[in-house]
Design brief:
Layout: E1 2-5, H1 11-20, E2 36-40, E3 46-55, E4 58-66, H2 75-89, E5 94-99, H3 103-108, E6 112-113, H4 121-124, H5 127-132, E7 138-143
Parallel strand pairs: 4-5
Antiparallel strand pairs: 1-2, 2-3, 3-4, 5-7, 6-7
Length: 145
């Protein structure tokens, strides 16, 4: 398994993976590709992804997805560590995310729940927050500096 930066040719495969994982794809476009890392298998197929979307001095961690046949193999953790390294390299102060199903996974990796009324305005204005994720999604943050 190899984790690499996404390129323009990956857009369709990323969207397919996200759809299979029941994650939002409505705003996943070429303009967002510069924030994506993808995991590829030995045949070059995309089997995992993670994305950083800039939000002021922080970033929204989104689209962390692993193909169902590779869950519980450590690939999700590897993608999370890789995207956190990338966030540090880009000097983001913290990572934010919204999740409906992976709260415990993120808590094990240092993310804390933040009540929605304490979310910065910049994050509240993102498509993820305003329309793509349900209001029941848990908001989480990790300081990475």
């Amino acid at each position: 398994m190899k984790i690499r930066a996404a390129n323009d040719d990956d857009l369709v495969d990323i969207r397919s993976l996200l759809t299979a994982c029941e994650l939002p794809v409505e705003d996943v476009a070429r303009s967002l590709l510069t924030g994506f890392l993808v995991a590829v298998d030995d045949k070059g197929a995309i089997v995992g992804s993670a994305c950083l979307e800039p939000v002021g001095e922080a970033a929204l961690l989104r689209s962390l997805a692993v193909g169902s046949h590779l869950r519980a193999t450590g690939l999700g953790m590897a993608l999370l560590l890789a995207i956190e390294r990338e966030a540090r390299k880009r000097t983001y102060s913290s990572l934010w995310l919204l999740t409906t199903s992976a709260q415990r996974f993120f808590e094990r990796h240092g993310y804390s729940v933040v009540e929605r009324e304490h979310v910065p305005d910049e994050l509240r204005e993102t498509a993820q927050y305003t329309r793509l994720c349900p209001s029941s999604a848990v908001c989480m943050r990790k300081h990475i500096k």
